Structure formats: structure tokens, C-alpha cells
Amino acid sequence: MKILHIGPLTERFNQRLVTENDVVQLWRQGDALAYLDAHGGEFDIVVTSARFGCSAAMLERLPKVRAICSFGVGYDAIAVDVARDRGIRVSSTPDVLNDCVADLAMGLVIDCSRRISASDRFVRAGLWPAGNFPLARKVSGKRLGIVGLGRIGKDVARRAGGFDMQVRYHNRRPDADAPYGYEPDLLALARWADFLVLLCPGGAATHHLISAPVLDALGPEGILVNVARGSVVDEQALVAALVEGRLGGAALDVFEAEPQVPEVLYGLDNVVLTPHIGSGTEETRLQMEELVFANLRAFLDTGEMLTPVV
Ligand code: 8YV
């Protein structure tokens, strides 16, 4: 079976894939679509990631492909509808990254509210001798709204319990097993919340779900935390709300055109910016890698995958 590896992961992952299989690394082949026009018919399996995905334009040029093994839980960059229509199996890496993404979400809540990164900048700039750092906002006991109470959302909710927070959530439908208040109206959740944490999938269904009215409902004391996808937030509206002081703060791990970050945010002290590090720990990335290889092995051995999304 011939494997098309779409974009580089760690050197260890890339090497392991090459050592164990017959692999072409697409990023070394010049123009991707031109390469696939000439050679796409040779491949049986695609290995990719949440970041590089596999577009409909690529799948069109991969007539023999039967499986896509992706590194990452989100699959909004993969043309899953096309895959489904063609009977192509797709796997992602759910669950193994829940702890780390939930940890980061809580870390960003605390950082943005207690202004940890801002106070670090204050000390490093030598400003402390000239006066005390301005007072921040308390975290414990506050109201945490979750947009997307899935597996990671529940882990965030559990952690918030440790901070004596009240938790409510917005999903398309209520989750009968969730012991948290369901809010069918996103605007009402934003109005209620001190912190609005985004944990929903990306893609067309959630595109710009967090619009100007939602940001205004969250308001000048509210904090937005995004560890989901940049596409979920209308970034222009977010920047405007922050610049005009209509939103209290934002902690963002994902962006609409990452790795590009709107430069105006660099100058705002009530904003915490991280470079899509939700799953980025040694332990979790290793588990994600193992799960990609386990899915690949399972497909090669049985034609089925361990953690399929299609
Ligand atoms: C990426 C992510 O997988 O899992 C996801 O959906 O967004 C991340 O964990 C990681 O950045 C590699 O693409």
C-alpha cells in the first residue's frame, strides 16, 4: 500500500512513517496539486493532520485512496463529505488530548482574568519599582459558559468545579447526561457568563458563531477563551470589540488565518495569545502519534480503523 503524507509532523513521526511504509512526503514535491495531477493515482492511504487536512481538490486527484489517518481530533480541514460519498475511511485522534486542551483552557481563563502574562511583562519591563501592578479579576466562584460541551468541554466543566464555578453550556441539543444547565440561546449564555470558553468543532456549522452581538452580550467585564478553531469567531468583530473596550479580554490559542495573528492584538494587555498549543505536550503528542499508527495498522490488517470519524 502506498501512502501519501501530506504535511510534516515531528521528525520522529515523519521518520517512523517512512521506515515502516512506502511513503511520499507531499510537502517535498513542489506544487501539491500539480504533483497529484501526475501521481495521485498511485496512492492507497493518506496520512495527514488537523492542520494540513485533505481538501476536496486533493481527493479528486486521489482516485484509489481508501483511508485517511489524521493526527488531531478536529477534522474540519478534511473533506469528510467527499470521503463519506466515496466510502473512504477517515480516522482522527480523539480523547488522548482531552486533558491537555482542558488544562490549557483553564490556564487561559486564569491567565487572562488574573493577568498573569501581563504581570510577567510588567516585571520584565522593570516597571515594578515604579509602582504596583493594577488589580485583576477573581476566578474562583465565577460563571463559566461552555460553547460545545463535548468530551473536552466536560473535562473543562469538571476542572471549573474545582474552582467553585457555576457552569452552563450551549450545544445544538441538550446533553441528557450532563449535570450542567443547558442554554439554548447563545446570546443568553454570553450575557450570563464571566468566561465564555469555546470548545466546539470548526467547519461550516460553527463558522462565525461568535459574532459581534455575542461579544457585546459577553460585555466589557467578560472574557472570551478560544481553544477550538479560529473560524468559530468573527475575528474582525472580536478585534473591534477589544479595541473599543466593549469586551473585557480574550485568550486565544487559535486564529482565523493562523499562524497569522491580527497585529493590533499584540498591543492589547488584556489579550493572551498562544500559538495553537492545546495538545502540545510531549506526553499527549506521543499518544496522538501512537493512535495514528494504531489506526494505520488496523486499516492495513483489517480494513477498519480504531477511532473512525467516517
Ligand atoms: C492539532 C488540533 O492536531 O487536534 C486538533 O484538532 O487542532 C491540534 O491538536 C495539532 O496542532 C497538529 O495539527
TrEMBL record:
GO terms for molecular function: glyoxylate reductase (NADPH) activity; hydroxypyruvate reductase [NAD(P)H] activity; NAD binding. Residues 42-309 form the D-isomer specific 2-hydroxyacid dehydrogenase catalytic domain. SUPFAM superfamilies: Formate/glycerate dehydrogenase catalytic domain-like, NAD(P)-binding Rossmann-fold domains. Keywords: NAD, NADP, Oxidoreductase. InterPro entries: D-isomer_2-hydroxyacid_DH, D-isomer_2_OHA_DH_cat_dom, D-isomer_DH_CS1, D-isomer_DH_NAD-bd, NAD(P)-bd_dom_sf. The keyword Oxidoreductase applies. GO terms for cellular component: cytosol. This is Putative oxidoreductase. It comes from Metapseudomonas resinovorans NBRC 106553.
